[in-house]
Design goal:
alpha+beta; eight-stranded mixed β-sheet; 21 helices; ten-stranded mixed β-sheet; globular; single chain
Length: about 600
C-alpha cells in the first residue's frame, strides 16, 4: 500500500533506489496479484488491481512497452472499419474507452487528430450516381461513428465529422492528387504516444503501492499440486553469477499479460497435461516516418488497400505511414521491417499523393507485432481483435488479444476473475481514476504562458512538456530550476530537452540508453540518424543519475549503435527471413543472447 503522506507524483517515481526496494519486496513478500508483462494490458491490470486495494506486483522482462505497446499506430480509435463489418460491440467498447481517455483518464496524453477519408471520383456523367452512393455510404458510416461516440463515448472529446468538396479536401490537404478525387469526409479520432501511456500506467500503479520492476524476467511457474502459487524471476540487471539473480515470488494469483508470447506461457503447462484453449498469432505491422515537409496537409488520411487500411498520421514534425498486416513467426523481441514492407507502404501511399515519396524521404522505420486470437482464417487481417481471459490452472490467469484502445477493459476483465477467486468484493474503479499527470492538467494548460514566464522558458517548451507529462511537468521544471543547463536541447534532437533524459532515469524507470532514445523519447525513429547523434549526450545525462562510469557509458552507446546499424541493415533485406537474420546480429542490451535455455519470451523452455 502506498504511503498516504507522499504525493502521488512522488510515490510513483520509478528510481533506481525504488527498484532496489521493490526487488527486496519481491523476494520477501507474498502478493495478492502478480502481473507478468509490462505492456499496456499488464500495466493496466496492475493499476486496476492496486486501485481495488490489493497487494500487487508487476514484473517486466525488458522495459515497459518494449514490445507491441510502443510500436503501434499511436491511435486511440473506435475502429471505424469494425462499424463497416457490423462488429458494433467492438465499436461501442472502443469509443467508450476513447472518450474516457481523452476527457478524464489521460487528457494530457490523448488528444483529437483529424483524418480525411478521400472519396474517389467516377468518370463522366454516368459516374455521378456512383459518386453520390459512395459519399452517402461513407458519410453514413462516419455519422454512425459520431453517433456511437455521442451515445457511449463517456464524454465525446472529439469534434463531429464534416463533408468536403474536392476543392475543400485539397485546401486542408494540398498534397492529395486532384485526379480521381471527388471530395472527402473529415472525422476525428484520438492520438497517443503509446510508450508514454504505458510508463504512465506503470507509475500510476506504483503510486498506489504496487511493486513495479522492469528487467525482471519470469522464467518459471511455482506450483503446489495443480495450483500456481508464484513465479520464478530472474533479475537481468544483477551481476553475472550473483546468488540473488534468480528468486521466487509468492502470489495468490498470477496474471500473464504477455501478448505475442502467450503461447509460450501456455506451453509451460504441458508437463501437467493442460491445454489452455487459447492461441495467439503475431501479425507484423510496419510504419514509416517521414518529415512533415514531405507531405503538405493539416489532417491525416485513411486509405483503403486491397487487404486492409492505410493511415497517414500527423505526428508533431513528422508523418507516420502504416501499417502492414502480415503473419510473423520469427523473433518476437525485435520484429524486422524488410525492404519489401517499405516498398509496399510507399507504393500504397503514392497512389494518392501528388509528389511520390521515395526511400530518401524516410527518417525512421519501426515494426511491431499485434497479438491476435487465432482462428481458422489464413489472413491475419481476419483474425479476432477481441480479447479472451482464461484460467487454465488454479491461480493462473491468461489475458490475450484485444487492441490498445481497450486495454482498460481487458485489465478489468482479468482482475475481475482474480478477485472472485480471492473473495475480494471491490469492483473496478479505473473508469474514474485519472492517471498520473491528468490531475490539474487542464488548469496548467490554460495558464501555460504564466507558467513559462515564471520559469523563464518559451511557451512552446512548456507546451511540449505539458503534452508529454501533464501536471508532472512541474517535476521537470524543478529539475531545470535546480540546473538551468537541463533546459538545453538534447544533442541531435532539438525537439527534446536534456531534462527529459535526466527525468527518465530518475523517475520513469529507464535503465538503459535504448529505453530513453526508443521509448521515453521517440528519437530512434524521429531522426534520420536514428538517435546516434544523441547517444553520447543522453548517456552522459543518464550516467549522472545512475552512477555510470566512462566504461559503462561507452558500452551503452556501443550497444545502441549496434542495434541501429542492425535495424538499418535489416531494412535493406528483401524478405522477413533475411531481415530477421540481420537484426539478430545485435544482442539485446539486457543480455538475452547470454541466457541459455530460455526463449525470447523470457519463459523457461
Amino acid at each position: 500500500m502506498r504511503d498516504p503522506h507522499l504525493p502521488r507524483s512522488v510515490a510513483g517515481q520509478l528510481s533506481s533506489s525504488r527498484r532496489a526496494d521493490d526487488l527486496r519486496r519481491l523476494r520477501g513478500e507474498r502478493f495478492d496479484v502478480l502481473v507478468i508483462g509490462g505492456g499496456v494490458t499488464g500495466a493496466g491490470a496492475a493499476v486496476d488491481a492496486a486501485s481495488r486495494g490489493l497487494k500487487v506486483a508487476l514484473v517486466e522482462a525488458r522495459d515497459f512497452a518494449a514490445g507491441t505497446s510502443s510500436r503501434s499506430s499511436k491511435l486511440i480509435h473506435g475502429g471505424l472499419r469494425y462499424l463497416e463489418q457490423l462488429e458494433l460491440h467492438l465499436v461501442h467498447e472502443a469509443l467508450t474507452e476513447r472518450g474516457l481517455l481523452a476527457t478524464r483518464l489521460a487528457p494530457h496524453l490523448v488528444r483529437p487528430v483529424p483524418f480525411l477519408v478521400p472519396l474517389p471520383a467516377a468518370e463522366g456523367v454516368r459516374g455521378l450516381p456512383a459518386r453520390i452512393i459512395r459519399r452517402a455510404y461513407y458519410g453514413a458510416g462516419v455519422a454512425a461513428y459520431d453517433a456511437f461516440a455521442g451515445l457511449f463515448g463517456g464524454g465525446r472529446g472529439m469534434p463531429l465529422h464534416r463533408h468536403l468538396s474536392r476543392e475543400g479536401a485539397r485546401r486542408v490537404f494540398p498534397s492529395l492528387r486532384a485526379e480521381g478525387l471527388a471530395g472527402a469526409i473529415r472525422y476525428y479520432d484520438g492520438q497517443v504516444d503509446d510508450a508514454r501511456l504505458v510508463v504512465t500506467l506503470a507509475r500510476t500503479a506504483a503510486s498506489m503501492g504496487a511493486t513495479v520492476v522492469s528487467s525482471a524476467r519470469a522464467v518459471g511457474l511455482i506450483r503446489q499440486a495443480r495450483e500456481v502459487t508464484g513465479v520464478r524471476v530472474r533479475d537481468l540487471e544483477a551481476p553475472e553469477g550473483s546468488p540473488e539473480a534468480e528468486f521466487e515470488v509468492q502470489a495468490r494469483s498470477v496474471i500473464a499479460a504477455t501478448g505475442v508470447w502467450t503461447d509460450d506461457m501456455s506451453r509451460m503447462l504441458n508437463d501437467v497435461g493442460l491445454r489452455p484453449g487459447i492461441r495467439v498469432r503475431a501479425s507484423k505491422g510496419v510504419h514509416l516516418v517521414v518529415p512533415r515537409s514531405a507531405i503538405t496537409g493539416d489532417t491525416g488520411l485513411i486509405l483503403r488497400t486491397a487487404t486492409s487500411v492505410l493511415f497517414v498520421i500527423p505526428w508533431g514534425g513528422h508523418w507516420i505511414i502504416g501499417t502492414t498486416d502480415t503473419d510473423w513467426r520469427l523473433d518476437r523481441s525485435h520484429p524486422a521491417a524488410s525492404a519489401s514492407d517499405i516498398e509496399y507502404l510507399l507504393r500504397q501511399v503514392n497512389t494518392v499523393l501528388d509528389r511520390p515519396l521515395t526511400t530518401a524521404d524516410i527518417e525512421g522505420v519501426y515494426a511491431g507485432l499485434r497479438p491476435l486470437l487465432a482462428g481458422e482464417a489464413d489472413s491475419t487481417s481476419k483474425l479476432s481483435r477481441e480479447h479472451a481471459v482464461i484460467e487454465p490452472m488454479l491461480g493462473l490467469l491468461l489475458v490475450a488479444g484485444g487492441k490498445y484502445t481497450t486495454y482498460r477493459v481487458m485489465a478489468a476483465d482479468v482482475v475481475d476473475r482474480a478477485v472472485r477467486r480471492l473473495g475480494w468484493q471491490r469492483p473496478s474503479r479505473t473508469a474514474d481514476l485519472p492517471l498520473l499527470g491528468a490531475d490539474g492538467y487542464a488548469a496548467m494548460w490554460r495558464d501555460r504562458a504564466d507558467l513559462a514566464r515564471r520559469h523563464g522558458l518559451p511557451v512552446g517548451v512548456v507546451e511540449h512538456l505539458l503534452e508529454r507529462y501533464g501536471s508532472l511537468t512541474l517535476d521537470l521544471l524543478a529539475l531545470i530550476d535546480a540546473d538551468p543547463l537541463l533546459a538545453s536541447p538534447l544533442a541531435g534532437a532539438p525537439e527534446y530537452l536534456a531534462a527529459e533524459v535526466t527525468y527518465a532515469a530518475r523517475a520513469e524507470g529507464a535503465l538503459h540508453l535504448e529505453d530513453v532514445l526508443t521509448r521515453r523519447t521517440r528519437i530512434s525513429f524521429e531522426t534520420t540518424h536514428r538517435g546516434l547523434e544523441s547517444a553520447e549526450h543522453a548517456a552522459e545525462l543518464m550516467g549522472a543519475v545512475l552512477g555510470w562510469d566512462a566504461d559503462r557509458r561507452a558500452r551503452e552507446v556501443a550497444h545502441y549503435r549496434a542495434r541501429v546499424m542492425a535495424e538499418r541493415q535489416s531494412q535493406l533485406m528483401p524478405d522477413d527471413a533475411t531481415a530477421d537474420a540481420a537484426l539478430l546480429g545485435a544482442p539485446d542490451v539486457r543480455g538475452y543472447a547470454a541466457d541459455r535455455g530460455v526463449d525470447d519470451a523470457g519463459l523457461a523452455r
